[in-house]
User: Fold this.
Amino acid sequence: MSVSIAMVKAPKIEAIQRPIVIPDPEGSRDNEVRPFAIEGMDVRGRAVRLGTVADQILSAHNYPDPVARILGEMLILAGLLGSMLKFKGIVTLQAKSGGAIPMVVVDYEVRDDGIGRLRGYAQIDEAKLATYGKNPSFNGLIGTKNGYLALTIDQGEDMDRYQGIVDLKGENLAEVARNYFMNSEQTPTELRLTCERDAVTGNWRAGGIMVQHLARGETGRERILDRETKEQWERASILMSSVKPIELLDPALDLDQLLYRLYHEDGVRVFEAAHLMKGCRCDRERLLAVLAQFSEDDIDHMLEDGKIGVNCQFCNKTFDFTPEEARNQ
Assistant:
């Protein structure tokens, strides 16, 4: 019997993890987040590009292309938000709905090395998905009725967890995220997210960009936008909105070049990039701790051909355990 553990929370176990990094082509500037500022404006932003990281995560389950695109955009959104963490922690995004994709969950973890580790998983209702055509809409796949997107920030036991929730209202994930920032943070925000297969290699690529207005002052939770800063913000957001999906994905156009292309007339200042990799937190010790929570009868029912198979829904890797290993925890 195979046991899925995507949403099971195991007891905290300190374990040495040696992540497998698939090297990018020589000279590649993929798999990074590039923070930037526009000179003379109260505007900050981030740009993200995923190459091999997106392909590894999306290819693990061989998702239908429309599902993979949404999961890829969620990974980019997690990269944009997670890279804002100033300390070690985990940013989790979870979308739940009544559509053909009942759940999508991704998270971004940063540790002492400063590298952002991404993982993600999409649940599919095959019966509902079969009723859509070749190019189903975002609303059709996610389903806006009673659907929501939850953002959770966890920076360890000594810090309070933060969670914000927004309805899944919008024509795409970028609109949902924009609504979150306006409703929950009162922060003017514009962003673009995209995910598509490379026309040459067929591998998945994903990219995104976000700009936010930094208010000069606040009255309660109402941010002040005077005439000058409003004009600056409109210019910055309009220029960002001119970016084309192919520009966010093009491996020959690195993020520095893209930002210069968008904002060279005003002047753009880029900061040190945060590097990204695929990173799943499953390992044998952690999964054994999960099995230890089950009773003797549960262990017996899990046995199949004398072993227990535990599948991680994030990376789709299966770990096999003997009943003795499970019972001796």
About this structure: Residues 310 and 319 are 5 Å apart (CA to CA). The chain has eleven helices and 16 strands.
